[in-house]
Amino acid sequence: MKCISLLGSTGSIGQNVLAVVRQFSDRFRIVGLSAGSNVRELARQVLEFEPQLVSIGRPELVDELAALLPDSYHRRIFCGTEGNRRIATMVQAQMVVSAVVGAVGLLPTLDAIMAGKDIGLANKETLVMAGRLIMEAVREHRVRLLPIDSEHSAIFQALEAGRRQDVGRIILTASGGPFRAMAPEELVRVTPAQALAHPNWDMGRKISIDSATLMNKGLEVIEARWLFDVSSEQIGVVVHPQSVVHSLVEYVDGSVVAQLGIPDMRIPIAYALSYPERLGLGLSRLSLSECGRLDFEKPDYDRFPALRLAFDCLEQGGTWPAVLNAANEIAVDAFLDGRIGFTDISRVVARTTRKVEHGDDRDLDAILEADRQARIVAEEEVCLTGAGSA
Ligand SMILES: NC(=O)C1=CN([C@@H]2O[C@H](COP(=O)(O)OP(=O)(O)OC[C@H]3O[C@@H](n4cnc5c(N)ncnc54)[C@H](OP(=O)(O)O)[C@@H]3O)[C@@H](O)[C@H]2O)C=CC1
Ligand SMILES: CC(=O)[C@@H](O)[C@H](O)COP(=O)(O)O
Ligand SMILES: [Mn+2]
Question: Quick one: which residues bind NADPH (predicted)?
């Protein structure tokens, strides 16, 4: 029986993790759950999975959650950053699945590694912000970091086909998002509802917007750099609108090994949970003849500048990727709130990366300070952009 703590249980990945745990209840047990603000769903999950500890995002929600749970839970509810860190380090957990969205995932994930837990990582922002520190901690504490992000799970699987020194390049596939074929003048006017409608995946709001700007692919490039210890020159991106080929590894002899499958996050989640075993999930099978055709095209860096920006930040190094991430979180929120337009997102992020003072990514405090500064500057940029377009 593998005991799992799950951070971000009420989200899209969190609920898929629980679906896999429910299906394989003879193999997995949930010992800790944490969520942000969805008290009702968290309470329902606690009643079903009976974890030992539970955490909710803000202190004012603790009483509301307690009211929905048996008295036996009242001393076992925590909150905020400390709550997440507590769930991430509880002695009963062998594995921590990090499925929260955004920078809030960094500290509990680092704590979990330092507490010797294997990690199932969906929260890509952790590696974008602090990939160097995280991978050093993984090596030092001899834990496994298993990717849940579909592309990284695909690469992880394709890497099993050869030796590390024989890898030439890794190639991330990108769906291209809902605006793949849209003219630049139309992109300016797209609404949050249009941007949230991903063609292939049903995901949380932030990552859906990131997919639409292609920032998601940029974040995934940085994630891949750290997870697989490759340089930015060794990472390619190809647009593949069907999301059937989840990513590829090119070896030095020219062989290209890919992982394919239907777009269902339970597949990479189950692989991370049960690695190296594979579980019979009973999902519908990929039928290539029904797919008919699989298309591939180059990404358009002019219409989707966020992807180029992410490569640039990766090459700059230091805290540049952490600033990119923080500015993007602010800009995405501002777009969803109707304060800036869709094409302003990458503009706000680019301006912020140039204005913030950058530091050393070997220093956790420098990363956290860069994140803090970037949020302030990005908010200013949002105000300036919003005022300019009013
Ligand atoms: N969805 C997908 O298919 C994929 C997602 N990912 C990555 O996985 C991560 C999660 O994405 P997704 O599930 O889509 O996002 P969602 O927005 O659906 O879920 C986010 C989760 O984080 C929780 N949360 C937010 N703030 C806090 C906090 N302070 N403390 C504890 N929990 C918090 C939310 O709680 P609440 O809802 O209660 O507020 C929710 O459970 C992201 O990093 C994303 O990039 C990667 C690949 C695919
Ligand atoms: C399911 C998953 O891993 C997402 O990151 C997904 O890949 C987003 O799709 P695109 O960013 O390729 O549009
Ligand atoms: Mn992905």
Answer: 10-13, 36, 38, 123, 125, 204
